Amino acid sequence: MTPEQFKIEVLPWSVKLFPMARRMLKSDSEAQDVIQEVMIKLWNKRDNLGEIEKPEAYILTLCRNHCLDVLKKKRARPAEEENDYKLVNIQQRTTDYDAREKLEIVHQIIESLPDKYREVIQYREIDGLDFEEIRALTGFEVPHIRVILSRARLKIKEEIRKIYDYGPKEHQSIAR
């Protein structure tokens, strides 16, 4: 693969990889580092990329696995360092506290979903991957992905209703 082909075929993947890496690592700087390292690995393997049957799946899997490696290294930190890390990286970009609170609740609900629901909804809604890319990463067929996504969205909606529907049911029937 020539440098020009690499720029056209591989480098644009960094834009799609970044949201996934940021979501997994919960840090913009670590995600950027991972993307850079993945691009270096791909550059070093550029002569063999033409032989890979599904390069998109290969690139996504390479990034995902590298993120998992970074997470494994972070787990080895003492608990005190881990808590400091979380405090330093709290996002303070928006002043709309209600929106931030709702977003945090949605993220907590997503984290509490069963693994395959959480994985599919994160790939689709947070990372913006299309169904074929999700299929390549998960191994699920597209119709199954659609079902999982629908069920995950329904579960999130139900949990949101439970949280925000705090009015007593008796008052609603009396008002009629």
Task: Name some characteristics of this structure.
single chain; 176 residues; mainly alpha; Rna Polymerase Sigma Factor, Chain: A; Arc Repressor Mutant, subunit A; 2 domains; 10 helices; 0% strand; disordered C terminus
Structural notes for this entry:
The chain has 176 residues and is an all-alpha fold. It is built from ten helices and no strands. Helix 3 crosses helix 4 (55-75), helix 6 (97-112) packs across helix 9 (142-164) and helix 7 (115-126) packs across helix 9. The protein is globular and about 60 Å long. Residues 77-94 and 171-176 have low confidence and may be disordered.
Q: Which word captures the global form?
A: globular
Q: Gyration radius, to the nearest Å?
A: 20 Å
Low-pLDDT stretches are 77-94, 171-176
Give the oligomeric state of the chains in this entry, treating copies of one chain as homo and distinct chains as hetero.
Answer: single chain
CATH architecture of the largest domain: Orthogonal Bundle
Derived structural class = mainly alpha
Offer a concise description of the structure.
Helices cover 76% and strands 0% of the residues. It is mainly alpha-helical.
Topology:
Layout: H1 3-9, H2 13-25, H3 28-44, H4 55-75, H5 79-88, H6 97-112, H7 115-126, H8 131-138, H9 142-164, H10 169-174
Helix pairs in contact: 2-3, 2-4, 3-4, 6-9, 7-9
